[in-house]
Design brief:
CATH class of the largest domain: Alpha Beta
CATH topology of the largest domain: Rossmann fold
Helix content: 40-55%
CATH superfamily of the largest domain: Alpha/Beta hydrolase fold, catalytic domain
Largest sheet: 8 strands, mixed
Number of strands: 8
Strand content: 15-25%
Length: 266
């Protein structure tokens, strides 16, 4: 298992496939390499054209986790991957991993292009806002109420109906896996929480993001996701916009890969 060492000494585990220019993949919340076959499939498809780093974000899978967490440390993890790649890379982030991707791209000089898919910002009344996502998730971790935190995350953040959540709890592997990853929920909330309050996005937050960014969403996703993508593209300095026909938040790798290949080869 290859690893890089982040600035704070944390070991970050990754898989590397393919050959060519480097692309780093950034997962969203509550998943890692072993639990998300979609990202592994995407890495294999992209590996026909690029060298692809599929890594475990800190606190997940085989990566370490040095306390206290800060957003800067997650960005430093990506910086370590870029340095391992020779100092230059492109990057793709999905869901809350897209928010991490945006912050990293604005901070790391070696990132030359970025794609984000369905960053879950809430920019209007298209869905119920989450005004205290970061604060609530952090408090529940500090109080050791991980079961309550997972319930909150799947029902109020993701939007799964309560009757389905009851069935999820019967699957001990599924629920147990989420409980294991629950302490990292505040990590994602740190990147997206301030933009999930139902307010317009600030026009200057990503002003330092000077490289081309493709903002994508799925044509079959809930409308609020498209609103978020439109709003994000409108405030980024060099953004293009694309909707993937018939796709949802669980985007198909064979549909997504050609979009990334075309953009990253420009």
């Amino acid at each position: 298992m290859p690893t890089v060492t982040s600035k704070d000494g944390t070991k970050i585990a990754f898989d590397k496939v393919g050959a060519g220019p480097v692309v780093i993949l950034v997962n969203g919340a509550m998943v890692h390499r072993s639990s998300n076959p979609t990202m592994a499939q995407l890495a294999e498809l992209l590996g026909e054209h690029f060298t692809v780093y599929n890594y475990d974000r800190r606190g997940r899978g085989e990566s370490g986790d040095t306390k206290p967490f800060t957003k800067a440390r997650e960005i430093e993890d990506i910086q370590a991957l870029v340095e391992d790649a020779g100092g230059q890379a492109m990057i793709f982030g999905i869901s809350s991993g897209g928010a991490v991707t945006l912050e990293a791209t604005a901070s790391i000089l070696g990132i030359t292009r970025a794609v984000v898919y369905e960053v879950p910002f809430i920019v209007d009344n298209g869905r119920q806002p989450l005004p205290d996502y970061a604060e609530r998730s952090t408090r529940l971790v500090e109080e050791g109420k991980l079961n309550e935190l997972v319930e909150y995350w799947v029902m109020e953040v993701v939007g799964i109906l309560a009757e389905y959540v009851a069935g999820m709890k019967q699957d001990q592997n599924m629920w147990g896996g989420m409980l294991t990853l629950a302490p990292t929920i505040p990590y994602d909330a740190a990147f997206v929480g301030e933009f999930m309050r139902g307010n317009p996005l600030p026009t200057d937050h990503w002003a330092n993001l000077k490289v081309p960014v493709l903002v994508a969403d799925g044509g079959a996703s809930d409308a609020w996701m498209g609103h978020a993508a439109d709003a994000l593209a409108s405030v980024l300095p060099q953004a293009s916009r694309q909707t993937l026909k018939d796709q949802t938040h669980a985007v198909a790798p064979n549909v997504l890969a050609p979009v990334l290949i075309e953009f990253f080869k420009q």
